[in-house]
Amino acid sequence: MGRSPCCEKAHTNKGAWTKEEDQRLIDYIRLHGEGCWRSLPKSAGLLRCGKSCRLRWINYLRPDLKRGNFTEEEDELIIKLHSLLGNKWSLIAGRLPGRTDNEIKNYWNTHIKRKLVSRGIDPQTHRPLNSAVPGVPPAATSPPSLPVTEISLISSSLDRRPHGNGYYGREKLEPKAEPLREDNHCTTSSGTTTDEELKAPRNRQQAQGGSELNLELSIGLAPSCRELNRNASSVTANTAESKLQEVPYPLLTVPTPAAAAAAAAAAAVCLCCQLGSRSGGMCGNCQSNGGSFGYYAQLGS
DNA sequence: AACCTTCTCAACCGCTACCCG
DNA sequence: ACGGGTAGCGGTTGAGAAGGT
């Protein structure tokens, strides 16, 4: 059938944005809020396609963006999240207030990849580059993506947490910052969320469904492993939390060939430990896994 | 100073998921 | 249930900056 172009290419500017264009976009969004990107350029008097406006706003003009260098903590968090989520830049960005998916993607490709390689870690698989462990496939063969069901569980849990930059991807469920405009009949990225909460029970069910889970426990200022385990033990075996506990991430826990073998065999490593909340040492899960520390713990500090 | 190479990152492109009539 | 329209995502590109010769 063929897709209609997102904009009338003949009458749109391309390339770098001028200050005037930026100002027009900022002014317009200040007045009317985000949303209805398709019609925004016309309304704002911009000779740009809506997509371009959206990108410009999200990646550059949003007032809550944190410009400047990434901190060491951000670096490590990105690495950990990437090892967990793969190239889900928008989800990763959701955990880094003030950072955009594009920014993180660029930063990953230009800095972190190199950093990991210099550490001897394959940036795609998060395995040691020269690991030749029996039973563990070569680094380049398998991306660190999780099974779809697990990804969606994680996405849902991530999405349920508000984050500072107010940027929510399609799957994100948390309400955004209140839009500035009063009314908008378009489906908006900023205004839908409230509606979304009403209209999208499917997503909510996915996230809740009797299995409320909160990855913040693991990623941010994580509670002790014990606490997480206690919480996990209080829910039924088939809840999302317990599923997360079961997610096999041998990729994350391969510091040595021996540990790699142990991890691959056990294939069940405590998430909180993988995500770096091990300040107090190994948790019970990891201990039962033959001492397969997440190697980030050793590298990160 | 001029040229070349490498690096960075903003912007674009194409695809997919989702919404709505 | 279906199809069109739109927003959002991830991969890629290319212009400009920075560094090297």
Structure write-up:
Helix 7 (148-159) packs across helix 9 (201-207). The chain has 16 helices and no strands. The chain has 3 domains: 9-61, Homeodomain-like (Arc Repressor Mutant, subunit A, Orthogonal Bundle), CATH 1.10.10; 70-244, no CATH class; 245-300, no CATH class. The model is unreliable at 1-6 and 132-301 (pLDDT under 50). Helices cover 47% and strands 0% of the residues. The protein is an all-alpha fold and 301 residues long. It binds a DNA duplex (21 and 21 nucleotides) through helix 3 and helix 6. Residues 9-61, 62-116 form the HTH myb-type domain.
In short:
The protein has 301 residues and is mainly alpha-helical.
Q: What's the N-to-C terminus distance? A: 55 Å
Low-confidence stretches: 1-6, 132-301
Could you say how many structural domains there are in total?
3
* Global geometry: elongated
* Helix coverage percent: 40-55%
Spell the H/E element sequence. Answer: HHHHHHHHHHHHHHHH
In total, how many beta strands? 0
What's the mean pLDDT score?
56
Based on secondary structure, the structural category is mainly alpha
> Approximately what portion of the residues adopt beta-strand conformation?
under 5%
Number of helices: 16
Outline the biggest β-sheet: none
Write the topology of this structure:
Elements: H1 19-32, H2 40-44, H3 50-61, H4 72-85, H5 89-94, H6 101-118, H7 148-159, H8 192-199, H9 201-207, H10 216-219, H11 225-233, H12 240-246, H13 257-266, H14 271-274, H15 284-288, H16 295-300
Helix pairs in contact: 7-9
The chain binds a DNA duplex (21 and 21 nucleotides) through residues 1, 3-4, 6, 14-17, 36-38, 49-52, 54-56, 58-60, 87-90, 101-103, 105-107, 109-111, 169-171, 186-189, 192, 199-200.
